[in-house]
Amino acid sequence: MKQNSFWKPRREAFLIILVFGLMFVEAGSVYGQVVLGARAISMGQATTALPDDEWSVFENSAMISDEQRSVSFFGMRYYGLPDLTDVAAVVTYPTKIGVIGGGAHRYGNDLFSESRIRVTYKNDYQSFHYGIAINYNHVAISRGTSSTNYGSYGAVGIDLGLAAKIIDGLWIGAKTTNINQGNYGEVLLQDGSIYVEEVPRNLSIGLSYRLSGVALFTTDVIKDVSFPISYRAGVEIDIVENLKARAGITTSPQTFSGGFGYNTNSWGFNLVVQRHEESALGYSPGLDFNISW
After folding, report:
1. Rg of the chain (C-alpha set)
2. Burial code of 8-33, b = ≥16 C-beta within 10 A, e = fewer?
3. Structure letter (DSSP) for residue 3
4. Which residue of 110, 164, 169, 220 pairs with 206 in a disulfide if CB–CB is 3.0 to 4.6 A?
């Protein structure tokens, strides 16, 4: 029995790697992922196996916590420009049949904006966790000073997530987005060809390890067929009770981030500052606030 219980989590981890490895090979054109939440961004956006994070609703739904109900709000201004702003909110509600979650996200300004409405479901069996998310994605482009009316477009995307707790403190996770290959529609170009604008799709595998009483380490590998593989890593260090410091790095593009957070069982807040490899772009500050009960 001891041998079986030892190998069972490892079989689950192997299954996750095998399924998503095959999907990496079969994936078509994809785009980069959008990461929300000050904690996740300050840890290098390595979210695929990040535990205890309210913003898993928008990342790997298999990692949504089932311990408490929560509501969270987030805002981030990129490179200090008011027109490049993310605002979002999420809610999670554990039930007897699983965890129900939802979220709303908007990026942009009056001339161009992207919005998402998201509904998620998460459940688990022993140490194996799984989740599904349905997104309604909407893009709106104003004519501004142009005589061209670009209008707005909507599309539905379905995301899947898997995760397994291998041993105490060690998680493996994987996710894929827009598996139904939803798109905003076809556009007829001047040369007579047809261009199809797809909803972003991506695949990722991640690990996290909590060194008890000291720090949490996370790392992700994300495949985007249109761009090079992106590697992401972050660390969260325990300073004093409820207070944590964080730092992270990503490649393709290269970014550096840092921040801190103060979180109790009933409420908390997190701050982040991110810097792009192009120093001319400046800093991107963000914060979030959460309530749990």
Report:
1. 19
2. ebeebbeebeeebeeebeebeebbbb
3. H
4. 220
Instruction: Compute the distance between CA of residue 57 and CA of residue 50 in angstroms, rounded to an integer.
Output: 12
Fold of 2-292: Porin (2.40.160)
pLDDT at 171: 97
For residue 175 the two structure tokens come to 């996710």
Contact 95, 101 (CB under 8 A): no
pTM of the predicted structure, to 2 decimals: 0.83
Better-scored residue on pLDDT, 66 or 20: 66
Side-chain-facing half-sphere of 7: CA atoms under 13 Å: 3
Q: Are 138 and 157 in contact (CB under 8 A)?
A: no
Cβ pair 54, 90 in contact under 8 A: yes
Identify the band that residue 143 occupies on the pLDDT scale cut at 50, 70 and 90.
low
Strand partners, 271: 260, 287
Q: Phi and psi at residue 30, in whole multiples of 5°?
A: -135, 170
The Cα–Cα gap between 64 and 55 comes to: 8
